[in-house]
């Protein structure tokens, strides 16, 4: 088929949707910077000046960091396992939860951690406790829920880089007398660092923006920015405050992933063999 | 090396158990005969399935979700197919910006994306309506549709089309007989994948629903907040079953490995 100038018209529907997206983002930014009398930074300044809003802000980043760390600790060995034994069934097990709605998976944790849930029923039956443990509506509940939802993303990001590692490099290191531990620490780990950095930024970003999981598994004290935006918007109808929170969330997310991107770039540059 | 591998295998087994636990637990909890949520269930009954399947409120939410996912997946697949045809075959000014914007819904934190789409729907005056939800979902699933179609078009050898044209086929015949059949697996997977994303989406939809226009995941969310009725477990199981059936179809059509390639 010939693709002349007229073919650019085929882009129009797509551009239309993107203009819609930009309109939404633009309106959001405009709302965040509109005060009682015209343009102002009052909404954002108000957010920054309110101690409880800033507490939510830092709490959100702390939870995101903890979720990212735990995700990497679980996902890395799991990706190594899957690379060593490449079976479709393992891939299916990782991908299946990804396809199940976040709300259903979070509900699963309610069934497990709730007062009449799996863990409390088991512990009570065993006679270890006689009153249900508070396993959700706290930090732990939110972290478990978020880690569970984001692990597949982390595993896939690490796995994608891991399977590309040149096996001859490992053999060369072994032949030259390196112990398996040394091969891992000096060869495999540095080579897989870009995958780890990608996994970290994905998980961190996704954790920052979560609404449903903190809403269902967190308590009144565990308000993340996502649930704060949800409440401001859908409970208090405070559009300016919700917009300001969304702007600060996006801005801080962009800044927060910079270190991960730097690690990625540094690791990729330091290892020219990856480029071939 | 042997003990190290045993430790790794044990770790992987525990990790897989952790990943699957909440899913299995929901399925098991759904067969309780009691009026409240308990685990493990004391007895076995399909009572909650009957209740859910005969409920008008659940049925309506289900139909809204199916219609929404169908509209979003069909329209976005079509729109992205047109765009990908152009971007893969000719120089497009501002192509990088275009592709960045298509990816933007994945890059923005979900809560911020929800606010942006909410703002758009307010500007358009479509809050609480089906068209409003549809516009938001169309934009939302674009990144999931565009990438596999571009991949599919890149893999496809243009010389076959040139050969057909040389042999006298007009452009429409070339498109119908060569391009479309070659790209079909990518189109089908893009459609099904975006259908699932739209069907399961809750974070953005919760901002856009109206008084009598709610989607299935949003109804589940609000029901969990209001009560812990076992009906939620039954609905969740049905929803999961449907999603997994679609994943199975994708796997049969194009292989599940495609997901890994797309996300990487």
Describe this protein's structure.
The complex is a heterodimer of chains A (276) and B (264). Chain A has 276 residues and is mainly α. Helix content of chain A is 74%, strand content 0%. Chain A contains 13 helices and no strands. By secondary structure, chain B is mainly alpha-helical. Chain B has helices at residues 2-29, 47-53, 56-89, 95-107, 110-124, 130-140, 142-155, 158-166, 171-200, 205-208, 216-226, 230-254, 257-263. The interface between A and B is large, with 89 and 97 residues.
Distance between the termini of chain B: 30 Å
The main pleated sheet of chain B reads as:
none
Please provide the count of β strands of chain B.
Answer: 0
Determine Rg of chain A (CA atoms, Å): 23 Å
Q: Which two chains form the greatest contact, residue counts included?
A: A-B, 89 and 97 residues
Taken from the alpha-carbon principal axes, the silhouette of chain B is globular
Q: Please state the structural category of chain A.
A: mainly alpha
Largest sheet of chain A: none
Number of DSSP helices of chain B? Answer: 13
Element string of chain A (H = helix, E = strand): HHHHHHHHHHHHH
Quick check: average pLDDT of chain B? 86
Give the oligomer, counting copies of the same chain as homo and different chains as hetero: heterodimer
Number of strands of chain A: 0
Strand content of chain A: under 5%
Distance between the termini of chain A: 34 Å
Find the structural class of chain B using helix and strand composition. mainly alpha
Short description:
Chain A has 276 residues and is an all-alpha fold. Chain A is built from 13 helices and no strands.
């Amino acid at each position: 088929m010939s693709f002349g100038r007229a073919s650019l018209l085929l882009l129009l529907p797509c551009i239309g949707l993107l203009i819609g997206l930009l309109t939404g983002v633009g309106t959001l930014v405009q709302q965040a910077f509109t005060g009682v009398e015209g343009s102002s930074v009052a909404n954002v300044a108000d957010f920054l000046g309110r101690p409880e809003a800033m507490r939510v802000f830092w709490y959100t980043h702390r939870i995101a960091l903890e979720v990212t760390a735990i995700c990497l600790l679980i996902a890395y060995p799991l990706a190594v396992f899957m690379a060593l034994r490449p079976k479709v069934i393992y891939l299916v097990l990782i991908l299946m939860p990804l396809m199940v709605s976040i709300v259903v998976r979070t509900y699963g944790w309610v069934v497990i951690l709730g007062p009449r849930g799996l863990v409390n029923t088991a512990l009570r039956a065993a006679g270890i406790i006689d009153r249900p443990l508070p396993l959700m509506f706290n930090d732990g509940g939110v972290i478990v829920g978020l880690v569970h939802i984001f692990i597949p993303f982390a595993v896939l990001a690490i796995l994608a880089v891991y399977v590309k590692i040149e096996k001859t490099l490992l053999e060369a290191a072994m032949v030259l007398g390196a112990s398996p531990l040394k091969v891992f620490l000096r060869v495999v780990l540095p080579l897989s660092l870009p995958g780890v950095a990608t996994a970290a930024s994905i998980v961190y970003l996704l954790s920052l923006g979560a609404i449903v999981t903190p809403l269902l598994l967190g308590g009144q004290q565990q308000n993340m920015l996502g649930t704060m935006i949800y409440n401001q918007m859908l409970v208090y109808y405070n559009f300016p405050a919700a917009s300001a929170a969304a702007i600060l969330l996006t801005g801080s997310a962009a800044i927060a992933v910079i270190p991960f991107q730097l690690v990625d770039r540094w690791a990729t540059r330091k290892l020219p063999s990856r480029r071939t | 090396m042997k003990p190290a591998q045993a430790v790794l295998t044990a770790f992987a087994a525990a990790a897989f158990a952790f990943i699957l636990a909440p899913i299995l637990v929901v399925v098991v909890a759904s067969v309780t005969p009691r009026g409240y949520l308990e685990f493990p269930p004391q007895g076995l009954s399909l009572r909650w399935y009957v209740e859910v399947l005969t409920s008008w409120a659940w049925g309506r939410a289900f139909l809204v979700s199916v219609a929404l996912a169908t509209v979003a997946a069909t329209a976005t697949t079509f729109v992205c197919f047109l765009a990908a045809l152009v971007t893969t075959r000719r120089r497009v000014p501002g192509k990088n910006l275009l592709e960045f914007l298509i990816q933007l819904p994945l890059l923005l934190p979900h809560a911020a994306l929800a606010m942006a789409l909410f703002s758009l729907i307010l500007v358009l005056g479509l809050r609480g309506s089906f068209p409003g939800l549809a516009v938001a979902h169309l934009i939302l699933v674009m990144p999931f549709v565009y990438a596999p179609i571009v991949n599919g078009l890149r893999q496809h050898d243009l010389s076959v089309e040139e050969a057909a044209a040389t042999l006298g086929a007009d452009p429409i015949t070339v498109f119908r007989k060569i391009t479309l059949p070659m790209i079909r697996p990518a189109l089908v997977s893009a459609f099904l994948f975006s259908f699932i994303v739209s069907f399961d989406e809750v974070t953005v939809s919760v901002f856009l629903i109206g008084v009598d226009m709610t989607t299935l995941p949003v109804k589940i969310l609000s029901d969990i907040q209001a009560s812990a009725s076992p009906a939620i477990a039954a609905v969740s199981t049905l929803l999961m079953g449907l999603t997994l059936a679609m994943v199975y179809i994708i796997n049969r059509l194009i292989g599940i490995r495609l997901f890994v390639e797309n996300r990487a």
